[in-house]
Design goal:
- The complex is a heterodimer.
- In chain A, 20% of the residues lie in helices and 38% in strands.
- By secondary structure, chain A is an alpha+beta fold.
- Chain A has a single domain, classed as Beta Barrel (OB fold (Dihydrolipoamide Acetyltransferase, E2P)).
- Chain A has a 5-stranded mixed beta barrel with strand order 1-2-3-5-4.
- Chain B has 26 helices and 10 strands.
- Chain B has 3 domains: 27-463, Amino acid/polyamine transporter I; 480-619, Rossmann fold, CATH 3.40.50; 621-755, Rossmann fold, CATH 3.40.50.
- By secondary structure, chain B is α/β, with parallel strands linked by helices.
- In chain B, 58% of the residues lie in helices and 10% in strands.
- Strand 1 of chain A pairs antiparallel with strand 8 of chain B, so a sheet runs across the interface.
């Protein structure tokens, strides 16, 4: 019966809301990670999110790749400098990473060159 | 990936995982069974009945109905052979071995297309047949809906369609309940039935009915009944097709699931046939209730268990229809990937594209239901041909493969699949022979048409790919000196005012204005005395023709590196699509200008609500954000980047929306290797809706049209044959439609003309 209710809800609720709830539940299932909304700059955290946007800039020395991730509570940017290939970074994959949180010029939360691990997410098998 | 960067990256960022390693999203067998097997399991709801219907035409006196059990056994044998053969397919093709792929790979393109066309047709029929059978199950319990069968059936199609448009994934639980519920209900029916029959079977309501002999009981009739019964085999393909969705070891799990599915289907089918025979059900066209319902009523009486059986039957049938909504787009996307179907089917993630596939499927299925008056038996005449064509081809293909690759024990394997191919081939001939007049000819006639269509699409794409493949152009810092603007002035208003401000901010090599109305001259002199206004003669031509002629003459004076942009200012009355209806002439003009070689079309719309008092003065926007829409790296895209460079924007970037995850990595790597000196952003369209994603993205620039503008540059293909245009540029249309009413957004179409 729970399955039917869930199925019904997922049909009737606005997709954005369902998506955010799904992402929160997924993030909750990853032990040791902090929700983006709870991050504080200049401290070390382990965060997880799903890649929503990828920015590739070949102009910055050797190229840079940025991934904007969301977890249903907020969004932040992971930035790798001098990175010549995408190697696994793609839309919808889950990204678990660890590093010191900073803010970029627009005031967005950012992690520079974090260590990361790609995991499956509700949006990409 | 090359080795050195990979090693560096491992130190830096840790071990990357391939999506193949993401095991925990894969389906366990218990969920995979309902997800993939609801179609074959559900056909038990009508397979016995269809065989009995044929036998009944020989009349009750002939004793033909006594053949129900032997015919069912024959069908069960074919099913066992097919399952055994498909077990080999899942081992040979662990990443998914649909009939199209196996045939195309081992037998060649034409057999592959034949399998694909047959399957596409059959998916449509799966929807029509399953929904109709579901309605039968409901009307067996609630007879009052019987008069409105077509409406109820189409209603269910719409319901399933809406659910799929909204995006119901192959949710395991959603499938599990009705599928296991149906299996459990049937087994309960069989057990209770067998127990009761031990002391003399209860008799069905129709027992003792007399049917007149319409046809002689002969070999042909028996074959026909057998062909009708083989409907139990539909959907076996789905498991072989979806092997990649199983948990590891994938092939082994898929093979086990196939066997379980086969065992369930065979036992249920034989059980139902046995009970139908022993409760003496007599079935004919006008029987109010299905065979399963009659058995249920005889065994249970009209109580809770009877209604439960009907509900579960209806539920699994509607679910079975839903599987076609997964299969049709999946096969379409595979075909589109191989360039046999329009590109729009390729990105399954793109909502509009997906919607198109779903709507096409729903429309065709509804037409079939309506044309055949929601009569199951009539629809079934068309069914199965596609299934057996694809069975035969894929088994033949597999045999070929075994003989070529020679894996361990290949002789036995080749024998097994070869035997499968022969048996299904014979069944196919039987089906064609017995159903041809009843409607099978419709399918046989349409398959070559579909194949020809796919072939033409393929050769067109092949041709286009050749023309786009070798980037002759490279963006190399084009400047405004490569840009010439022609402002079209239907009348001098707020939109022309914006247009003048926009073009002035770019300081192009040349700006001219053209009009057909001499009355505009005075107002123009006040608005933009620096820009010459040329009066175009309209005599003898339509405006469009005269404008095109003017542009063509102008174009001739320019070098191949130069751009010539025609600027179209527009005042829009209100939001909504009614605008396009209200100004069909403007719409046609823009479309026509796109086919003028070497001309780009820049659209500056302004809505009434956006016109402020001060817009009477020309104001140059201080910031111009240029976004080039990108899907892959090709000449058309590179030309659009060059174009963007001539605008000398504040910020220039390429953006891509709603790309498949697999394509993202390729585009990113291509971008880095192509050394295009601009950033690329790849944005997810989580709801597979490019239009809204673009809109949301554009809004971050907070364009007001006065000081801040966003210029969206869309590379478009223009093909010489008009009818080919449908194979390209749909995304461009969607994006343009969404951006039309967005304040401060200017849209440029940069056409790339193909020979």
């Amino acid at each position: 019966m729970a399955g039917i209710r869930r199925a019904f809800e997922s049909i009737s609720r606005p997709p954005e809301e369902v998506r955010a709830a799904t992402l929160r539940a997924w993030r909750d299932s990853l032990a040791g990670t902090t929700p983006i909304a709870d991050l504080e700059p200049r401290k070390r955290f382990k965060v997880a999110g799903v890649i929503q946007n990828i920015r590739i800039d070949p102009r910055e020395g050797g190229g840079s790749i940025e991934a904007t991730i969301i977890d249903g509570t907020g969004e932040m940017i992971a930035k790798w400098l001098g990175r010549p290939t995408m190697s696994g970074i793609t839309l919808g994959t889950g990204l678990i990473m660890e590093g010191v949180i900073g803010r970029d010029e627009d005031g967005e939360l950012v992690i520079l060159n974090p260590e990361y691990e790609l995991v499956s997410s509700p949006e990409h098998g | 990936m090359s080795r050195a960067p990979a090693a560096i990256k491992r130190i830096f960022v840790g071990r990357p995982m391939s999506s193949g390693e993401l095991e925990h999203t894969l389906l366990p067998k218990t969920i995979a069974l309902p997800v993939f097997a609801s179609d074959p399991l559900s056909s038990n709801a009508y397979a016995t009945q269809e065989a009995m219907l044929v036998l009944g035409t020989a009349g009750t006196a002939s004793g033909a109905l006594g053949l129900t059990i032997p015919i069912s056994i024959a069908v069960a044998c074919v099913l066992a052979i097919v399952v055994s053969s498909y077990r080999q397919t899942v081992h040979a093709y662990p990443s998914g071995g649909g009939a199209y792929r196996v045939s195309a790979e081992n037998l060649g393109m034409l057999p592959g297309l034949l399998a694909a066309a047959a399957l596409l047709g059959d998916y449509v029929l799966t929807v029509a047949v399953s929904i109709t059978a579901g309605v039968d199950a409901i009307s067996s319990a609630v007879s009052s809906i019987d008069d409105h069968r077509v409406i109820v059936a189409v209603g269910f199609v719409i319901l399933v369609t809406l659910a799929n448009l909204r995006g119901v994934k192959e949710s395991g639980t959603l499938f599990a309940i009705p599928t296991y519920g149906f299996v459990a209900s049937i087994y309960l029916l069989l057990v209770v039935g067998f127990v009761k029959c031990a002391g003399g079977c209860p008799q069905a309501e129709s027992a003792g009915d007399q049917l007149k002999a319409l046809e002689p009981l002969g070999f042909f009739l028996i074959l026909k009944a057998f062909a009708a019964g083989t409907t139990a085999l539909t959907g076996v393909e789905a498991i072989a097709d979806g092997t990649a969705a199983f948990r590891y070891p994938q092939s082994k799990n898929a093979a086990t699931t196939l066997s379980v599915m086969g065992a369930l289907t065979i036992s249920m089918f034989l059980g139902i046939s046995w009970l139908a025979d022993h409760t003496n059900v007599i079935f004919h066209h006008d029987a109010g209730r299905t065979v399963v319902a009659q058995i249920g009523a005889a065994i249970y009486g009209e109580g809770f268990l009877f209604y439960l059986l009907q509900v579960m039957t209806a539920a699994i049938l509607i679910l079975a229809a839903n599987t076609a909504y997964q299969d049709f787009p999946r096969l379409s996307s595979i075909l589109a990937n191989d360039n046999f179907m329009p590109r729009q089917f390729r990105n399954r993630g793109d909502r509009l594209v997906f919607s198109n596939g779903v709507i096409i499927l729903a429309t065709l299925a509804s037409i079939l239901i309506w044309a055949f008056d929601a009569q199951l038996n009539a629809l079934i005449q068309l069914y199965l041909i596609g299934v057996f064509i694809s069975f035969t081809l894929s088994q033949t293909g597999l045999t070929r493969r075994f003989r070529k690759v020679k894996p361990q024990g290949w002789k036995v394997k080749a024998l097994r699949s070869g035997f499968g191919a022969i048996v299904t081939g014979i069944v196919l001939l039987v089906i064609i022979q017995t159903k041809f007049i009843g409607g099978a000819w419709i399918i046989l006639a349409s398959i070559p048409v579909i194949m020809y269509g796919m072939y033409s699409v393929h050769s067109h794409y092949q041709d286009v790919a050749r023309q786009l493949a070798h980037p002759e152009r490279r963006p190399h810092d084009r400047r405004p000196t490569h840009q010439r603007f022609v402002v079209y002035v239907p009348k001098v208003d707020a939109a022309t005012c914006r247009a003048v401000g926009y073009v002035r901010s770019i300081s192009a090599a040349e700006v001219t204005a053209v009009t057909f109305d001499p009355a505009n001259e005075a107002a123009w002199e006040r608005l933009a005395p620096d820009v010459p206004l040329i009066q175009l003669p309209r005599a003898g031509f339509s405006n469009t023709k005269a404008l095109r002629r003017f542009l063509r003459d102008k174009r001739r004076e320019l070098g191949s590196d130069d751009f010539l942009t025609v600027v179209i200012p527009e005042v829009l009355q209100a939001g909504g699509l009614s605008e396009i209806v209200r100004h069909p002439r403007m719409h046609r003009l823009k479309a026509s200008l796109l086919s003028e070689p070497g001309v780009q079309v820049l659209d500056i719309p302004i809505t009434k609500a956006d016109i402020h008092a001060m817009t009477d003065e020309v104001q140059e926007p201080g910031r111009n954000f240029a976004l080039v829409m990108v899907a892959s790296i090709n000449n058309a895209m590179l030309q659009a980047i060059e174009y963007a460079e001539t605008l000398r924007p504040t910020d220039l970037r390429a953006v891509s929306f709603g790309l498949e995850p697999e394509a993202v990595e390729k585009l990113g790597d291509d971008w880095l290797t192509a050394r295009i000196p601009h950033p690329l952003e790849i944005e997810a369209a989580p709801f597979r809706d490019i239009g809204s994603s673009v809109l949301q993205y554009v809004r971050q620039f907070e364009a007001d049209g006065i000081d801040r503008v966003v210029t969206v540059i869309i590379p478009e293909f223009v093909v010489p044959k008009k009818r080919h245009q449908i194979l390209h540029g749909q995304t461009a249309l969607i994006v343009k439609r969404h951006l039309l009413f967005e304040p401060g957004v200017v849209v440029v179409s940069v056409p790339y003309h193909l020979d």
